[in-house]
Design goal:
mainly alpha, 2 domains
Length: about 100
């Protein structure tokens, strides 16, 4: 009698281990696919990088020409950054002209 019960317990453990392994494997496969989709849809520059680049560009433009309005400098810098981000391949990092703040 004990031999049959032990055999049933052993087969349940094996079945549970297989179920857990299949679920874990499915999670890994679907998780990797989700990460691959996310990496292709991300912009080439992060929002923080773009803001830092915009601030540096506007400082340079407005200090070089005191007659330039804030709106003109912003428009010119946006155009410049958009051209730069279009010319770099996907995933390339763009270094900012301004040092990072701690």
């Amino acid at each position: 009698m004990h031999g049959i019960v032990n055999t049933l317990d052993l087969s349940r453990r094996i079945l549970m281990k297989r179920v857990v392994m299949v679920v874990a494997l499915a999670g890994v496969i679907f998780g990797a696919q989700a990460l691959a989709v996310d990496s292709t849809s991300q912009p080439t520059m992060s929002k923080r990088q773009m803001i830092a680049q915009m601030v540096g560009c506007m400082r340079k433009r407005m200090s070089a020409n005191k007659n330039t309005s804030y709106n003109d400098a912003m428009k010119a810098c946006k155009d410049q950054i958009n051209k730069q981000s279009d010319s770099f391949p996907s995933g390339a990092l763009v270094a900012s002209g301004t040092p990072a703040k701690p």
